[in-house]
Task: structure prediction
Amino acid sequence: MNHFDTILIANRGEIAVRVIKTAKQMGYETVAVFSEADREALHVSLADKAIGIGESDVEKSYLNIDKIIAAALKTNAQAIHPGYGFLSESAEFAQRCEEANLVFIGPDSKAMAIMGNKTVARHKMLEANVPLVPGYDGPSQDNPTLQKEANRVGYPLMVKAAAGGGGRGIRIVKDPQHLITELEAARAEALSSFGSDELLLEKYIEKARHIEIQVFADQLGNTVYLGERDCSMQRRHQKVIEEAPAPNMDATLRKKMGDAAVKAAEAVNYIGAGTVEFLLCVDQSFYFLEMNTRLQVEHPVTELITGLDLVEWQLSVAAGEPLALQQDEIELKGHAIEVRLYAEDCECDFMPQTGRIRQWKMPVATGIRVDNGIVNEQIISPYYDSMLAKIIAYGATRELAIRRLTRALKDTVLLGLPSNKTFLLGLLQDHTFMNAEATTRYIEEQYLPAQQKQAAQGPGDSMWAIAAILLSRMPGTTGWRSTGTLSWPVRLKYQQQQRDVTVFQDGSAYRVEYSDDEIQNILILAESDGELLLQINGICCKLNVALDERHTVYIDNRSQVAMFEKLSFSEKQNQDTLGANLIAPMSGKIAEVKVIKGDTVNKGDVLVVLESMKMYQELMAQQEGLVTGVYIKPNQQVEVNMPLIDIVTSEQANDE
Ligand code: ADP
Ligand code: ADP
Ligand code: MG
Result:
């Protein structure tokens, strides 16, 4: 029973890579699945076999149960590891695996069905005596009932999609006036994202920390907890930094929360790896949030402090073996912290970014682990999650782990598209984080507003100078001789800033002069593989750089990553040739078109909803005007800069 020797990994990216590594170490044969966009992905090359499962769109590949089951049968895999995301929490998928005689590496479909619905899970937890956030989880869903229940629960409160996950479908309602609008919006979002408009209400717990317990259960009735993780550093209810153990956690509270988590798991006859999420209040009371019935993104921090391999445990449990350790044999040692490296533009509302990876270098150092699924020159497509890698540090103390992680992040090079590296570095050096005082709302309510108040810290003069040197050396630029040295004028742009500089070159020595009389002296000492060894105004340092065809250079000076563009001298900054017309800010799929030709729109009206990397982005009218052209339809795939909607402003109309 439960015999398998070949495992199909029904996922992609870093988690597929992670699972393949352990499966191989345990002697299993591995099968990767891939969509068209992932043909050359890292997980594909690491597996023993790989099989295409269709188009890039998730519905046609990674979320397509029929195709995945067929792929397993065709490659003679007898077990499927679902990873996280995608089908990992689909009770239907687990059941279909059971029916096809494939071992689903996870809990059984019944446990998943209960925990997959926040309302049903709450009912079960109530029975099991696990503390719940006060709220409403009844069957009546009409506005008057919800309004009445909201008054009973009290404000502020949270509206959640019962079937929700990944931080989506969650809304905070501060006062009664906003309830109905928020309910309507939550219903619509829940229906389109999760296929069910069922909602629940929860009291909004202020100043709480997100503490989750890793549980594990075998098929013989043993359930243990492997300590906790603190994931309070969040943005949009999504984790950014995670650590284990939770700072300031004492043994008594750990045991209390651990026992509650085990009770939660036992209540649904849980098998395998699971996470019970709690909110922990200042007075040390805690409340059940949800149970994630899979391996979690942040599982590495638990692995580092327990010395265990959780994927190994998952495979052993699936094979019918008992847990390797009993509760009193599980020891937590040291401290581990993980950051999630995303392709996103932190200067632009953290919009996920697509593009080609021009340079990817992982840190290598004592106490550092990197889980990633990317390779150089890979194209990051709009179809999937924008999380590219996780950098994880371990140390005997929290301070050591933070220091190592900060350094490792500086050593991490990801060039070619914007990433959140600089943002993460800022967080790691933030006092509230260092003092372990952050609650779940800290980043959004305090950290980001404080950042915005500070004068925007653009790249320093030396970064501009290096950009000028690199861009002036590009083919097509001609220098001219004047008194023995070469010199070039260069016009550079960084975000909204523009600078004109002159680059003087004498062999490997450069002098960059700015129009405001500032001068930088730079000597290029060595150059290889995108790494420059420089002497800047007398100090030697290393930099990583990547040029991209479009007269763009990415520079990483370890602490800061900046992208500069070279403008031609005839180009003016912010030239708005497109007027009020709407173009696609990134590649993605049109989720909704809210206007038709002939409509008049006001500034701020939502014209189009674009879905990209699992995010819904509302594209708004920048000016008021008349819609004169609509070039897109729902479900259509669009490329960056593609014209979507034409709008004629009243000024433009008057001009004609
Ligand atoms: P966690 O609490 O572990 O972050 P989430 O429910 O937020 O759990 O989702 C798990 C992870 O899976 C997230 O990091 C999310 O970005 C990722 N994920 C979810 N859905 C997908 C998907 N369709 N493709 C790729 N990654 C996904
Ligand atoms: P998801 O399934 O999307 O992960 P969760 O219920 O786990 O949804 O909540 C995600 C995050 O939202 C939590 O980590 C926490 O920061 C916040 N949150 C959820 N419920 C509450 C609540 N009742 N009060 C305060 N914050 C909450
Ligand atoms: Mg959650």
User: Anything to note?
Assistant: Residues 573-578 have pLDDT under 50 and may be disordered. The chain has five domains: 6-105, 134-203, 210-457, 461-567, 582-655.
